[in-house]
Amino acid sequence: MKQKVLVIDDEAQLRKALSRIIELEGYEVYQAGNAFRGLKILNEVKDIMLVICDVKLPDINGLEVLGRIKQTNYLTEVILLTAYGTIHDGVFAMKKGAFDYITKGDGDEQILVTVEKAVEKAKMNHRLFELENKLETRYSFERIAGNSRVIKETIRLAQKVAPTDSTVLVEGETGTGKELFAQSIHNASLRKHKSFVAVNCSAFPKELLESEIFGHKKGAFTGAAYDKKGLFEEAHEGTLFLDEIGEMPSELQAKLLRVLEEHTFTKIGDTKPTKVNVRIIAATNRDLHRDVQDGKFRTDLYYRLSVFKITIPPLRERTEDIPPLVEHFISLYSAQINKKIEKISGKFLQKLQSYYWPGNSRELKNVIERAIILTDEGKLSINLLPLEILYPTGAEPATINSTLSDVEKNHIARMLDFTNGNKTKAAEKLGIGVPTLYRKIEQYNLK
Predict the structure, then answer these.
(1) Which of 33-37, 204-208, 322-326 bottoms out in mean pLDDT, i.e. has the lowest?
(2) Contact 35, 7 (CB under 8 A)
(3) Which of 313, 328, 360 is the last residue of a domain?
(4) Best exposed site among 39, 192, 278, 327 by fewest CB in 10 Å?
């Protein structure tokens, strides 16, 4: 596919000659004799990678054209042409967003090299834009599956706080999707084009965590062979996500509080403070309020972090969200594993909705991925579920008053459930013959 270039110049002879040179290099070239016509072409023709524009045009100055292009087509690169170029004019044009500023009469070879570099830059702009869009789609509120009232209210609160710079504390059990909410808040904020940096505060010992978050100077401690940027610096003008904030040592809690209040911190081994502009989103699966009462977490930091608190409900409290979550995970993993799932059995969903889900959505995701791997029929049935879901601890327990017949009856019923009614498989797993199984089914009225 040919890359598209637009040449805007009121000197027809020069415009045609330049366009011909560029066309011979394999580009698709559009021409305009004035700014108005050029901007109209740019609006009508998709994916013009480069505009080569004369500075002096009969209707609008080329620098103003540059400004308009960068407002509406900021992925497109612009090269300005001038009959009398100066260093000052060139610097000014590039500050305004021009890719380059070249003088008319420069050799064809030099112009073509500049055109090639500018088109490559524009192609990179488009690739980065597509990547950002994919990331925004992946981490957007629309991707949080669920129809329950509680999850919709949680999403509504997160959407309210997202455009602000307020510190957010996300609470919830392990596996509820705290980082997904944090990333979605970042991607709905004014900082979305800057970095989202995440760190798990429970993953490092105190000394390493301090260096990881705040950085250090060369020679600050044994093994510090070079200056190291901390995650606060990496997240400058973006968002820093502090997962498992309740595990942060008390010494670092004080240092974090200072950053939140003064927007400065001091690296290990440094004498001068470093200023940063970072939004903090923290998350925890602990009861931080209780930790404050027990003296395990700083009171002042807790209230500074919980300016806006979001609590993600556990999956067992919103079982109506399980079917849409299952559909979402099937869509995700069937494409990755290259298996088409055409049917989900009613018993499969019933078992999922009756399970306690200590690992929440993360556990459900793993169960669905496992089931897709195991199925050979394009169907998700109950026999694909792990035993802890089929027979959760404490479900229908045998009591001291149960007879041997009761225990046998319940065990056979569960095995038939597990094999989705396949009597041959059930007999094999029970270690009995198929005729014996049929006799037991008749005896216990398990038809």
Answers:
(1) 204-208
(2) no
(3) 313
(4) 327
